[in-house]
Amino acid sequence: MTALEAYKLRKTYRQGGKLVEAVRELSLKIEPGEVLAFLGANGAGKTTTIKMIAGLIRPDTGWVKIAGCDPHRNSKALQMLGAVLEGNRNLYWRLTPEENLEYFGVLRGMNRKAAHRRGLALLDRFELLHKRHTPVQALSRGMQQKLAIAVALIHQPRLLLLDEPTLGLDVEASQNVKALVREIAQEGCAILLTTHQLNIAEEISDRVAIVQNGEIIALEPTARIVKQFSDCGYIIEFLGELDDVRTRKIEAIGAVVESQKMIYAGTPEGLYQILNVLSPLPLVQVKQDRADLTKIFLKLIGESRAATVTHGN
Ligand SMILES: Nc1ncnc2c1ncn2[C@@H]1O[C@H](COP(=O)(O)OP(=O)(O)OP(=O)(O)O)[C@@H](O)[C@H]1O
Question: Which InterPro entries match (predicted)?
Answer without folding.
Answer: AAA+_ATPase, ABC_transporter-like_ATP-bd, ABC_transporter_ATP-binding, P-loop_NTPase
